[in-house]
């Protein structure tokens, strides 16, 4: 079966080469103690037990990803450690670049706050699927609107710098939702309705200046080897 290009439809099971494509991976599960608090852009440890138990998931991710891609992580250790776990699971070592704009939402003075203490600090009604509304800016921090602005600039810049190539970005739930808001031209409050689980894969493409979404929250237990390797 041949791959046709009418309307850039995907007529094959394989993603065609030569497309500006971003493979966004949410980092692995963080330590249980950290999950009890609002960690946002804090540098917290991954859960060592999950790292050991989820080795098959990392192997599945390693098979799924294109081999000729450039790798990027946020400045937080948990994204680099997730990338290293994928490398060790069969992908192989690669150079890794840090993209600061793909970091998680900065919660400012609310960092390290126990979750149950957050509601008393809020000035707006929280989002049903996020700690705050998209327009709430923590003191000394940033709102999800701010996150969307920086992530949008990052993706556009990276797409211009690496046209027709694959880029793998290990990032965060908030930043990946921001990327979806950018690709779909939707308000961050709407993008926060997407579920972005740990180790999930979201694929975005930019074609002729337009963004499209290939997959969202694809979990490694369901993935198959990619023909783009």
UniProtKB/TrEMBL annotation:
The residue stretches assigned to a coiled coil in this entry are: none
Q: Which domain of life is it from?
A: Bacteria
Gene Ontology CC annotations of this record: cytoplasm
Q: Name one GO molecular function term.
A: phosphatase activity
**InterPro entries, alphabetized:** His_Pase_superF_clade-1, His_PPase_superfam, PGM_Phosphatase
Report the SUPFAM superfamilies cross-referenced here: Phosphoglycerate mutase-like
Name of protein: Phosphoglycerate/bisphosphoglycerate mutase
Q: Which organism is it from?
A: Acidomonas methanolica NBRC 104435
């Amino acid at each position: 079966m041949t791959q046709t290009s009418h309307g850039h439809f995907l007529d094959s099971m394989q993603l065609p080469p030569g497309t500006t494509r971003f493979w966004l991976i949410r980092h692995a599960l963080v330590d249980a103690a950290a999950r009890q608090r609002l960690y946002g852009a804090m540098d917290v440890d991954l859960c060592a037990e999950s790292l050991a138990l989820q080795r098959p998931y990392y192997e599945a991710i390693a098979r799924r990803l294109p081999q000729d891609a450039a790798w990027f992580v946020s400045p937080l250790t948990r994204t680099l450690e997730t990338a290293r776990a994928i490398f060790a699971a069969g992908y192989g070592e690669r150079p890794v670049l840090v993209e600061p704009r793909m970091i998680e939402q900065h919660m400012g003075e609310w960092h390290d706050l126990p979750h149950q203490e957050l509601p008393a600090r809020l000035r707006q009604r929280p989002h049903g699927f996020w700690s705050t509304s998209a327009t709430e800016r923590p003191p000394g921090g940033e709102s999800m609107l701010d996150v969307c602005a920086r992530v949008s600039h990052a993706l556009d810049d990276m797409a211009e710098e690496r046209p027709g190539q694959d880029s793998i970005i290990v990032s965060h739930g908030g930043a990946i939702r921001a990327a979806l808001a950018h690709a779909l031209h939707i308000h961050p409050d709407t993008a926060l309705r997407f579920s972005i689980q740990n180790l999930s894969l979201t694929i975005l493409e930019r074609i002729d200046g337009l963004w499209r979404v290939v997959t969202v929250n694809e979990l490694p237990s369901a993935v198959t080897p990619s023909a783009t390797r």
